[in-house]
Amino acid sequence: MTADLATLTAAVEAGNRAVAAELTAAALEDGQDPKAILDAMTAAMDQVGRRFQDGEIFVPEMLISARAMKAATAILEPALVAAGVTPEFTAVVGTVEGDLHDIGKNLVGMMWKGAGFEVVDLGVNVPAARFVEAARDRNAQIVGLSALLTTTMPNMRAVVEAVRAAGLPAKVVIGGAPTTPEFAAQIGADGQAADAGAAVDLARRLLAG
Ligand code: B12
Predict the structure, then answer these.
(1) What is the residue with the minimal CA distance to atom 86 of ligand 1?
(2) pTM here?
(3) Pairing with 185, which of 42, 75, 147, 152 sits 20 to 30 Å away (CA)?
(4) Which atom of ligand 1 is nearest to the CA of 62?
């Protein structure tokens, strides 16, 4: 199979899991840049979001595309995660309470692993207390919160407050399509990143200083 990235975008958008996975494997075999492969998939999800917003497709279609993206990112993960790096920092990552979106959060986790962090992934719908418990137990230097819904963004504030109230030294960073650096500042978070690549830069910057 030819590893054409435009075809990969189309396969993810159409929710064609098998083709998306095959094309990802083929693109890796061809020696294509894992970041470019990831960008092709993200472009598909952007398009899916637009079509959902415009009422052209509904939740089931969105879910089918998400599954295709998950299958493809599972194949991409080993390439994104650089081999043989000893974890220097520990990061806790999760999607906040009430929110079930996890593709972006998973990508951030993968990229942080790739940057050499040990990553503790708490999954989705994570209450504030659970973030605090994990950050404390694992001596995390960084806590990453994801939210994709405007209705669950306020739950990020609860986590920031709980982490601070527990006296933990961890930096708290946020992300997810509706978040902004201004919102991060408002809720007392240490930063916000717009994509998984920027999440690596942000974490490195905060942990260096
Ligand atoms: C796939 C999807 C779903 C899937 C999720 C499957 C899954 N396992 O994740 C399903 C079908 C389950 C779903 C459900 C719903 N969804 Co939805 N969904 C999407 C969609 C199309 C794509 C999201 C995605 O995966 N994007 C791709 C990833 C790679 O991007 P990302 O998540 O933004 O992550 C990147 C950055 O934001 C950042 N980032 C993310 N997290 C973090 C964390 C940290 C720490 C950092 C630093 C960075 C960071 O880095 C990531 C990688 O680059 C979006 C539209 C969109 N374009 O965002 C709608 C969207 C988010 N959904 C929406 C809605 C309304 C819903 C539902 C309420 C629909 C319904 N009526 O039931 C439910 C809510 C369920 C719930 N309680 O969470 C709306 C939200 C509107 C709003 N303003 O609140 C959107 C925007 C669609 C739209 N345009 O209307 N959804």
Answers:
(1) 49
(2) 0.84
(3) 42
(4) 11
